């Protein structure tokens, strides 16, 4: 299995490189750009839908049969892979390339969901909103520690700026309370030291 995948350009054996990249994404790319000979049959207006589907299925199975004959291991990974492809690909090819509009919408929706999931799972969004995808490199995302540190410092600055008004408001409230307490204490002192002036009474 490792030898077969290495010859196909897979450097690391993991779920992303084998299942998602090699199997799923490559299949969607092939279906998005099919050969002209296939399109000339599926887009022909004078041919029946049944004839188009039979011709499309026969083309797929003929290609897979030719690929099986070139395999180095008759019971290896690609032998099982071509069996799976021969079961699933005819239905997908008919949905993407056939005249059925509802099937085409459903297949396009399936592709959009897969692509959106991969963007959310394996892409790292930087500040300028630029994305980099590293395919078949063992790790699907190239993390930039400098950008992560910069984003963390920016978030800390924003939080500090939000805390400064609250701190100043609390400081002003404490100052007002202290001023009122000092005023009360001053009033108490004034009561003890107040001199009451009494006017003299004229003797009659």
Protein model, in words:
- The protein has helices spanning 2-7, 15-32, 36-42, 49-69, 77-97, 101-122, 145-192.
- It contains seven helices and no strands.
- By secondary structure, the chain is an all-alpha fold.
Strand-helix topology:
Layout: H1 2-7, H2 15-32, H3 36-42, H4 49-69, H5 77-97, H6 101-122, H7 145-192
Task: Average the pLDDT over all residues and give the rounded result.
Answer: 68
What is the distance, rounded to the nearest whole angstrom, between the alpha carbons of the first and last residues?
Answer: 133 Å
Helical/strand content category? mainly alpha
Number of helices: 7
What's the structural domain tally?
2
Residue share in helix: over 70%
Largest sheet: none
Main location: mitochondrion
Pfam families: Miga
InterPro entries: Miga
Region (Disordered): 176-204
Please describe the structure with a list of short key phrases separated by commas or semicolons.
mainly alpha, single chain, membrane, mitochondrion outer membrane, transmembrane helix, 204 residues
């Amino acid at each position: 299995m490792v030898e077969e995948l290495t010859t196909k350009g897979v450097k690391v054996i993991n779920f992303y490189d084998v299942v998602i990249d090699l199997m799923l994404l490559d299949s969607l790319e092939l279906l998005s750009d099919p050969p002209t000979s296939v399109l000339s049959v599926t887009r022909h207006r004078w041919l029946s839908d049944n004839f188009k589907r039979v011709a499309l299925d026969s083309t797929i199975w003929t290609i897979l049969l030719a690929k099986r004959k070139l395999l180095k291991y008759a019971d290896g990974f690609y032998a099982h892979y071509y069996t799976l492809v021969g079961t699933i690909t005819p239905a997908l090819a008919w949905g993407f390339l056939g005249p059925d509009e509802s099937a085409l919408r459903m297949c396009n929706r399936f592709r959009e969901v897969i692509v959106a999931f991969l963007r959310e799972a394996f892409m790292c969004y930087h500040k300028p909103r630029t994305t980099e995808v590293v395919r078949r490199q063992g790790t699907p995302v190239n993390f930039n520690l400098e950008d992560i540190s910069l984003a963390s410092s920016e978030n800390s600055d924003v939080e500090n700026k939000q805390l400064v008004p609250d701190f100043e408001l609390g400081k002003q409230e404490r100052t007002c309370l202290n001023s009122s307490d000092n005023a009360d204490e001053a009033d108490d002192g004034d009561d003890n030291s107040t001199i009451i002036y009494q006017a003299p009474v004229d003797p009659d």
